[in-house]
Design goal:
7 helices
């Protein structure tokens, strides 16, 4: 399957708006087997009795491995102190309500403690015919939701052993949810659809992805078997200018896993023996795959033991 997307990314400067990049490309999506994938909903919650981000044992609360607003049910009970909870809550809230993300969560029926308050204002979708003329869309028509997901340079640790630590964007890709885009265009005799997103907070998304990967690995007992995981924690908790060493995007082609909304898999990079995780939000929509470096393992034997010891 091939999809064509065209996205103009802009930033606000003191003198107005400046175009950063125009992405216009055909990209391929490969349908992949779901055999062997671990289901997040099938995993059990566990207890920590100490903050998983710092040594504190004071004023602990439960920590969702995957944010509740992304459908996360697995928790690490008594796994976050109040100070760390405030930090993670801030960047998670930015990521969960960024641009069209709140509308996507509503379209997918994800839970919301606020009743999807952030998605109450409708996203404006404009249509054009083959001659470039605007086509009016009725207010009561269900329109597709297009979410722009950032494409980062691969993690610095995977490509140059961490000499590059800043988070770098290569572009943005649009992923459609809700109403089928092709059918929507046909029904309205349109040749193109446009939707505006504003206020993209890509750093918040990168920090949230890193937190998900670390929390999953902590829940699995993997963190204690690796070296350097504390540096990942420092990057997403207190030193976001270092996050580019640990978080990036897997190169295309993109992958689609039918019926899987969130895919997480452990991977090993050789010869560096770095254990990293592929985190794919909206895997059934063929969204980009993000890579999060967890830490270094001692040997291939330890890697094999790690995989065989994963908790279910």
């Amino acid at each position: 399957m091939k999809v064509r997307t065209q996205i103009s990314a802009k930033r606000v400067t003191p003198s107005g708006e400046e175009t950063l990049r125009l992405v216009s490309d055909d990209f391929q999506i490969l349908d992949k087997s779901t055999e062997g994938l671990r289901s997040a909903n099938a995993l059990s919650s566990i207890h920590a009795d100490a903050c998983i981000y710092c040594p504190s044992t004071v004023q602990l609360s439960s920590e969702h491995v995957i944010p509740f607003a992304w459908g996360g049910k697995v928790q690490i009970h008594r796994g976050s102190c109040e100070e760390c909870r405030r930090v993670t809550s801030q960047f998670e809230n930015y990521a969960l309500n960024d641009g069209a993300m709140a509308h996507v969560r509503k379209a997918l029926g994800y839970p919301s403690r606020s009743g999807h308050k952030s998605a109450q204002q409708a996203l404006g979708v404009s249509l054009k015919d083959q001659d470039g003329q605007e086509i009016e869309v009725a207010d009561d028509v269900t329109t597709p939701v297009i979410l722009g997901l950032p494409l980062f340079v691969r993690p610095g640790l995977l490509v140059d052993d961490g000499r590059r630590t800043d988070l770098r964007m290569e572009g943005i890709v649009g992923v459609a949810f809700g109403a089928d885009v092709e059918n929507f265009l046909k029904e309205h005799s349109a040749s193109a659809a446009a939707q505006r997103e504003s206020g993209k907070r890509v750093l918040a998304l990168a920090r949230t992805l890193a937190k998900i990967a670390y929390g999953w690995a902590w829940r699995d007992g993997v963190v204690e078997k690796l070296e350097g995981t504390d540096q990942l924690v420092n990057a997403f908790m207190s030193q976001p200018d270092q996050i580019g060493a640990y978080v990036g995007t897997k190169p295309p082609p993109y992958e689609r896993y039918q019926g899987v909304q969130l895919r997480i898999e452990y991977k090993l990079s050789m010869p560096s023996q770095l254990v990293y995780m592929e985190v794919q939000l909206f895997a059934d929509a063929g969204a980009p795959v993000y890579e999060v470096v967890l830490g270094r393992i001692g040997s291939m034997r330890e890697w094999r033991r790690l995989l065989s010891s994963l908790r279910t």
